[in-house]
Amino acid sequence: MEYSKLGKELEIYTTVDYIGKGFPIILPNGAKMMKILREMVESAEEKRGYSVVRTPSASRAEIYMIEDRWEQEKNNIFTIEDEEEQNSIVLRPYVRPFHCSLYATKQHSYKELPIKYGETSTVFRDEPTSKIRGLTCMRQYSFSDASIFTSPELLEKMLVESVELEQYFMEKLDLNVEYKISTWNTNAKENYIGTIQEWDLCEGLMEKVLKDLNIKYVKNQNAMMYGPSIQVYYNEKLLAKIEIDFEITHRFDLKYTDKDGLEKIPIYIHRQDLGCYESMLAILIEKYQGEFPTWIAPVQCIIIPEYDEYIDYANELKEKLRDRRVRVSVDFTDKEVDEKIEKAKKFKIPYIVLIGKEEYNSNNVLVMRYGKKETRHYTLDEVMQRFERRK
Questions:
Q1: Can you list the domains of the chain with their CATH numbers?
Q2: Quick one: which of 284, 289, 314 has its CA closest to 302?
Q3: 3-class DSSP state for residue 213?
Q4: Most-buried pick from 66, 84, 177, 248 (CB within 10 A)?
Q5: What is the tens place of the pLDDT at every residue in 313-352?
């Protein structure tokens, strides 16, 4: 089933006509999944030395003028116009200039490099109404954005780390992806920023890194004018990228002091590991058809007490599971048990825990696994241990 229909059936997202096209509402189930994805990314980045930052979702237009992208971008972004154009307020379409502005607030030594920023960013793009579609083309997006400022000596190491991080996320999500290296058009080099030496160095290192990691790839000559990139595709759609920007470091006058005491320009790498979080939701809904792995399921377990006198027992189990960070709920409705079970199956909740007279009297529970026929009795301790293994 297509994600747009299934996503609404599973109460992951919805749309409201009077809110407008391109502005979907992410419901609690979807918001929980996005939070899990965000924590996965931010945790992995922090382990690798990234600092989590938050930059403004709106700013003066001048920042894009410094970047020299204003004329290209102003017709595709949301702007509150001012008589003086540089004072117009812009809803940001991307974060790169903000991270560069952050780097520029301090002087830096080669000893500090690499400097890495990670951000879960909200960006806005004035997409044509005809192109807007569900969670895949919107006017407000959430991105996993990261920036690396490094020296030429550390560039290969940073590319290796970036690609390995991408592999980790794709394996975690069980997504079979393809890698491409996006290079410049060798017949039109005059259209690109940067020197031949810079392009040759970076493209060569990108190829070396993918070969060393035994990753198959293809090359195409469709790089952006500011630098080459490693692009990650899923089902022939661009999902994530690791790109180098030769221009932005000059525009924002970024520097670091090298060991010889001279000022040098850092190399800037921009990464988007999962691309847009909303679009990733769409990918996961379609891939798993709602039968999400337990670690990412918005509700991992639902407890169904047969009668009201078992509610205290159900709440006791719920609190014990929550203490272990299990995402659990209790169905307190007055419906029959069979109806409650069917509702839980409709939402494809991985574990259904039943509490009837036998379970209440023996201080255990009956566990049903979604998609499995067999059921089994567990003590409360065994239930805890089972969820510990499933994290």
A1: 3-57+92-288 (3.30.930.10), 301-390 (3.40.50.800)
A2: 314
A3: coil
A4: 248
A5: 889 889 988 888 899 999 988 888 889 999 999 999 999 9
